Amino acid sequence: MAIRLVLIIIFVLSCVFLIQKYKAMRSQKKTRNITEPKILACADCGVYIPESEAIRRNGRIYCSSGHAKNHEV
Ligand SMILES: [Zn+2]
Predict the structure, then answer these.
(1) How far is ligand 1, taken at its centre, from the CA of residue 38, in Å?
(2) CB-based burial label for 41 (10 Å; 0-12, 13-18, 19+)
(3) Can you give the pLDDT at residue 34?
């Protein structure tokens, strides 16, 4: 009887472990989609750059401070 109880406990624990691993994998996929970088086009030369590297001036997007200066008045 005791061996059977231990086997049941091991089975239940392994099930819980697999479910947690599966959930972690699913949430990783979700966050990967959210953190995917947004690509923006430079208002001066039209080059595509990730949002994190973009320079914003007067509501426009530029690839570099040099191109931002080209549009300054
Ligand atoms: Zn540019």
Answers:
(1) 16
(2) middle
(3) 64
Residue ranges covered by each domain of the chain: 1-36, 37-73
Distance 44 CA to ligand 1 centre (A): 5
The CA 35 to ligand 1 mean position distance, Å, reads: 24
Cβ-Cβ contacts under 8 Å for 47 (sequence gap 6 or more):
41, 63
DSSP string, 5-49: HHHHHHHHHHHHHHHHHHHHHHHHHHHHHHTSPPEEE-TTT--EE
- Please say whether the beta carbons of 73 and 58 come within 8 A: no
- Confidence band for 70, pLDDT divided at 50, 70 and 90: very high
